[in-house]
Amino acid sequence: MGKYSTFNFVKGQWESLSFEPQDLSEKVIIVTGSNVGIGYDTAKALARMNPTKLILACRNVGKAKKAVDEIKTVTGFQDIEPWDLDLASFASVRAFAKRFDESGLQLHVLLNNAAVASPPDFRTDDGFETTLQVNHLSTMLLTLLLLPAIRRTTASTWAPRIILLTSEVHYWADLPERTAPNILTTLNNSTAWGTANRYRVTKLFNVLFVQELARRLARSPLLGDRSIVVSSVNPGLTNTNIGVGSLSFIVKKLLFGRSAERSAITSVYVATAPEVAKLTPYGRYYSNCMAEEAADLTLGVEGEELAGRLWRESLEVIEVTDAEVKL
Ligand SMILES: NC(=O)c1ccc[n+]([C@@H]2O[C@H](COP(=O)([O-])OP(=O)(O)OC[C@H]3O[C@@H](n4cnc5c(N)ncnc54)[C@H](OP(=O)(O)O)[C@@H]3O)[C@@H](O)[C@H]2O)c1
């Protein structure tokens, strides 16, 4: 397992990446934030593997319908639907999960791809800093509410997968708030929270949540000898809409950015490759289709403590009890 270095980053941006197409018949897949960017290209590649159903979970139904039509035309795959999901609203997340539960569908792959960086509104209507809610709190809420549907799927021989898109910027996240009595409250109350660091911190939280969820699932008596593969994915620096308000992001993208189609390869690989399910323990961080060591803040006993604290504090905020999660 490698670790981030500038040399590896630059080399990785031009690395040749690939995945073996798999047969996804009988599989139901959700990709959040898939109307544009990496999520769109991920959905398109998965559509070519012929799943039972592909759901594009997006905040703008008009844009999602357009993406659905395009993917249908380009791939010929027809069982694809736009579903309304606004991660800036806990009510929308709960409505989405309820709709999915009532559909009676199983869930084989949950690809949490949607995110924001430097959003125009500092706070959501729910009162949380927007990046924190969209990238971490709502993504966690959605994952936990969909766990029962994912757990039902473990009856099949194919281990279901939960994936969160993170970023290599999680290596540079500065989190002095970890010494505060409550990390989330402290972060949420600070209007001085720098935009770039806000995004980095939420991407660090994605890695920590994945690690903690994997540890809890590994101990879960409900799963027995079955498993749910949980991973985080760094897609690499990509020429998409995210971060267009940041000059340094724009310059870096001009110099090193790659296409969304190429960056989607790691998401598709982690969502489908049989070898990913064999690489235990789960909770790994993938970059350029390889498991790599995540940031120091996530490692060892201190990393586990931080992930555990974040889990407990986040459950309080999203008002989900351990009993409701049923791990
Ligand atoms: N691009 C990069 O260089 C890069 C590098 C590392 C990691 N990533 C990660 O890759 C993932 C995909 O990013 P991208 O580069 O493809 O960015 P993008 O083109 O901006 O796509 C982001 C997607 O998230 C959606 N989204 C934003 N806010 C939402 C909300 N409140 N509810 C539901 N959906 C929402 C967007 O919808 P709208 O179209 O309606 O805005 C869009 O579909 C993100 O997790 C990002 O952090 C990107």
Q: Bin the helical content.
A: 40-55%
CATH H level: which superfamily?
Answer: NAD(P)-binding Rossmann-like Domain
Order of helices and strands: HEHEHEHEHEHHEHHHEEHH
The total count of helices amounts to 12
- Strands, count: 8
Strand content: 5-15%
Low-confidence stretches: none
Q: Can you offer a commentary on this structure?
A:
The two termini are 29 Å apart. This protein has one domain (6-12, 22-319): NAD(P)-binding Rossmann-like Domain (Rossmann fold). The chain has helices at 6-13, 37-47, 61-75, 90-103, 130-153, 183-189, 195-219, 247-256, 260-272, 274-278, 300-318, 322-325, and strands at residues 28-32, 53-58, 80-84, 109-112, 161-165, 229-234, 284-287, 290-292. It is α/β, with parallel strands linked by helices. It has 12 helices and 8 strands. Bound molecules: NADP nicotinamide-adenine-dinucleotide phosphate (NAP). GO terms for molecular function: oxidoreductase activity. Pfam families: adh_short. It comes from Jimgerdemannia flammicorona. InterPro entries: NAD(P)-bd_dom_sf (IPR036291), SDR_fam (IPR002347).
